[in-house]
Amino acid sequence: xxxxxxxxxxxxxxxxxxxxxxxxxxxxxxxxxxxxxxxxxxxxxxxxxxxxxxxxxxxxxxxxxxxxxxxxxxxxxxxxxxxxxxxxxxxxxxxxxxxxxxxxxxxxxxxxxxxxxxxxxxxxxxxxxxxxxxxxxxxxxxxxxxxxxxxxxxxxxxxxxxxxxxxxxxxxxxxxxxxxxxxxxxxxxxxxxxxxxxxxxxxxxxxxxxxxxxxxxxxxxxxxxxxxxxxxxxxxxxxxxxxxxxxxxxxxxxxxxxxxxxxxxxxxxxxxxxxxxxxxxxxxxxxxxxxxxxxxxxxx
Length: 300
Prior knowledge:
Blueprint: E1 2-11, E2 15-25, E3 28-33, H1 40-47, E4 55-60, E5 63-64, H2 69-72, E6 76-79, H3 91-102, H4 110-120, H5 136-147, E7 154-158, H6 166-179, E8 184-189, H7 192-198, E9 201-206, E10 209-214, H8 216-221, E11 227-231, H9 237-243, E12 245-252, E13 255-261, E14 272-273, H10 278-299
Parallel strand pairs: 3-8, 3-9, 6-7, 7-8
Antiparallel strand pairs: 1-2, 1-4, 4-5, 9-10, 11-13, 11-14, 12-13
């Protein structure tokens, strides 16, 4: 169990990146969902022992990860949002270099371990290809290979599917799901589909504050019977959004369809009730928080 207690992070210039985050992360896959700039990467870097918090504690099975990160590092795997590779190296050579830097050892030697890891992430066929020829998904899988070396108990992955095409994303989903069967995987993302597909539990963070800890089913249940959908003319979209709480707007065969959150059920007559999605629930949470924060600023 990963236990995050009242975590605060201040940056120079009066910027507060984390406002007292408290969160318990159980075994399996756990999602941390929030927009870009919400504080997710700051939190991930603290958990990985790369950044010191201004206040608070992080405990893992009784060990304080803030005071004694050296006790946690052998049990931790980390795939940051931006992972640097040497493009001229082959996939196998790049992985062996990272394994040596991490100090990972194997009874059969580093070559055997490298081959096993590449096979595990479905990159054995590309072991001798230079990394510069890898697709985005292949690079992410190479990053996962180094992260799971040593069989860590906690695996942290920060925005791992951003920029991947649908096929690569589906392949990466399967890999992460498999890894979560035997360890805690903390997935940080701004993509709602990542959470919908992978996570039975997740937390929502915005502007460094924890908005909710819930499940996909519970999140959707909180806005049951409040979602409506209809067609809005292209030139009317801005005015419509100023009047109603729009959660999604998208094109279907050239027609603008709009989904709105309307707990009072006051919507245009041509709008029909629809089942809520996780995207709807997430947008309702963030829109509500944005309004509350705006009211506090106005009151001050």
